[in-house]
Amino acid sequence: MNVDASGVVSHQSSVTAQTKNGLTVNATGHITAIGSIPASDIPKATSSAVGGVSVGSGLSVTGAGQLNHTDSVTAGTTSGITFNAQGHITAATALTGSDLPTSTTSAKGGVSVPSGALSVSGAGALTHDTSGVSAGDYTKVTVDTRGHVTAGTTLSASDIPDISAAKLTSGTIGTTIIANDAVTGGKLADSSTVRFAGAPDTAGVVNFGTADFQGQFLYDEYHDDLYLWTGNSFKSIDIVSGEIVLAGTYDASTNLIASVTPKGTSIGLTVGQPLIAPAASNSNHYVTVSQSGTGSGNAPAVALAPPDFLLSTGSTWEVLDLSAALAATAANNVSFAPAGNIAASNVQAAIQELDTEKASLSGPTFTGTTTFSGNVNLGTAASLVFEGSSADDYETTFSIVNPTADRTISFADVSGTVVTTGDTGTVTNGMLAGSIALTKLANLTSGQLIVGNSSNVPTAVTLSGDATISSTGALTIANDAVTADKLADTSVTAASYTNASITVDAQGRITAASNGTAGNPGTVTSIDVTGGTGLTSTGGPITSSGAITVNLDNTAVTAGSYTLASITVDAQGRITAASNGTAADADKISEGNTEAEVVDTGSNGHFKITTEGSERIRVGPAGQIGIAGANYGTSGYMLVSGGASGTVAWAEPTAAVGGGSDRWAMEHDNTVTTSYTIGTGKNVISAGPLTVNSGATVTVPSGSSWVVVD
């Protein structure tokens, strides 16, 4: 407040007189007038401050200052949104299928998801349903009507159409495309894998010629030897024919000769006698051990087993230990090429697979079609019984009368019904092969014939008239019974002929005749025959009388009989060389020093495999596995490998033991007598106390541990 000199009280203000926000203020700060607030005095609203706003499109203000939406829509609900007449949204719901327009090929819109092809997640993600096919590459697929792959597999031969070989115009067929066992023997040309050398030249040398490829065989037919082309030369791959000679078999259990060959007889071997002393006369002759035992006498005093050889060097009988070589190989180390229905890849697994899948010997049951590649032998008193088309109380039984000799009943290669002795009216003319044997006809009186009578019935009658027939079939024509009228005319003209040229038929009749001209007679003064290749003539020339003899020349072959002969024939068909051959062993398959042999020795029949001349493995008569012969091991023992270059041997297993069926303890020796190095990266545990003998060392490498539990 302020009081001037006159005593007038007034406001003291620093306000400049003005009009703002509709109010007029004087210099003393007194409101002197009130009016409307002009728009220019209202601050504009911002995103962070309150202020005045102007009414834009879509809004309106009444005279009373009421702010409204401009009304340009009819209240309703569209696509899940409900709005009033002022355009305010008053409610909202989720869209439904009916809210969306249907899509077309030219307009966007909603689509439905068919089952079994597409699916939609809760988040609206559209995915393609799985068709049941695992992801991967397939050469053959199955597609449904939508084009979806519903199955995938590999192509089979029937999926590929036949294509003419004429379509192949370039390139080569790789060896990987040709299947194993696809090239059959019929596809191989003669001499494609084996070349043949013939007789030697004048110097006695067989020309082998040039091989077509490395690994090609050559068979020397003259010397009966087999060779293999190494790329540089032909190498013999067998024992040269005649180099060693089989003389017989030797029973090591009795140390007597069991059998002899002709070669064995020639050197003095006798069945039932001991082995003869070695000498120059029996050098390179050998006998095969047929029964196991220990040699004595002239035989080496060592253990012998089939199929060991005893070979004479001229001074001693040496043992070729074939049985040990075969026994040194475990069956699971012998490879086997899977074939047929056997999937195993080694002999042990193949034998086990056969044992698992074999048919029972006692009453096996076969379902479906069963094929037997060999004979089906039925035991004594056995019959074939067929149930027929329905299982009932009636069967057909094939019963065989006990034969007194080998019999064979053959079914013809035709379809039809088998005729039995109980049939009547079954045999027809079409079933008869050829004529009916005369012994099947009723007896006739001697000299009678079977003639159809007036009723067309076969009847026995006696030949009458100008001819008779005897019981031997001789037809006798009565004298003077054949008249000229009975003879058939020929084409010859009845007449007389001079120096006639005539033709006579098989009945002695003149069938042609003509006059001839008398010739000038001559004289033969000499005749001779000259021998050709392989022929020699003697006795010529003949000038008056005599005989010329033509003889077949002798060849170098010795007259006699030959067994499994190897012969040489010249261009004239003469045998110029011949020698006895050797029968192949039907029970043995050989390739170089490797053999597989079936040995039938009665109760000790077995199968054995030999490599490098020694028996490695054997399958005994009871199915046992033998190592190095008949070494079947001790019951409960196991096969232990000797490593890459060692042999397999039977050994006692170090498995857990117990007092009964329980297995709770591991037993081992308590003294180390031999030095041993623990494998790198391996740990060992032993039970103490444990003594390491002097001179024995246990080496524990870095990274390994040895724990002794006391």
Folded structure, characterized:
With 710 residues, this protein is mainly β. Helices cover 3% and strands 27% of the residues. It is built from three helices and 50 strands. The chain has a five-stranded mixed sheet with strand order 20-19-21-24-25. The protein has a five-stranded antiparallel sheet with strand order 38-39-40-41-42. It has a four-stranded mixed sheet with strand order 15-16-17-18, with no helix packed on it. The model has no long low-confidence stretch (mean pLDDT 80).
Q: Would you summarize the structure shown here?
A:
This protein has 710 residues and is mainly β. Among the domains are: 194-236, no CATH class; 244-320, no CATH class; 663-710, no CATH class. The chain is built from three helices and 50 strands.
Shape: elongated
How large is the count of helical segments? 3
Structural class, please? mainly beta
Strand order of the largest sheet: 20-19-21-24-25
Gap between N and C termini? 116 Å
Main beta sheet: strand number and arrangement?
A: 5 strands, mixed
Oligomer category: single chain
Helix content range of the residues, please? under 10%
Q: Provide mean pLDDT, rounded.
A: 80
* Low-pLDDT stretches: none
Strand-residue proportion: 25-35%
Report Rg. 58 Å
Query: Tally of extended strands?
Result: 50
Using brief descriptors, characterize the structure shown.
single chain; 710 residues; mainly beta; 3 helices; 50 strands; elongated
How would you summarize the topology of this molecule?
Layout: E1 2-3, E2 9-10, E3 18-20, E4 23-25, E5 31-34, E6 59-61, E7 67-69, E8 76-78, E9 81-83, E10 89-92, E11 118-120, E12 126-128, E13 140-143, E14 149-153, E15 194-197, E16 217-220, E17 225-229, E18 234-236, E19 245-251, E20 256-260, H1 262-266, E21 285-291, E22 293-294, E23 303-304, E24 309-312, E25 317-320, H2 322-327, H3 347-357, E26 384-386, E27 396-398, E28 448-452, E29 458-462, E30 467-469, E31 475-477, E32 501-504, E33 510-514, E34 535-538, E35 549-552, E36 566-569, E37 575-579, E38 588-591, E39 594-599, E40 606-611, E41 614-619, E42 625-627, E43 638-640, E44 649-651, E45 671-672, E46 676-677, E47 683-687, E48 691-692, E49 698-699, E50 705-709
Parallel strand pairs: 15-16, 19-21, 45-48, 46-49, 47-50
Antiparallel strand pairs: 1-2, 3-4, 4-5, 6-7, 8-9, 9-10, 11-12, 13-14, 16-17, 17-18, 19-20, 21-24, 22-23, 24-25, 26-27, 28-29, 30-31, 32-33, 34-35, 36-37, 38-39, 39-40, 40-41, 41-42, 43-44
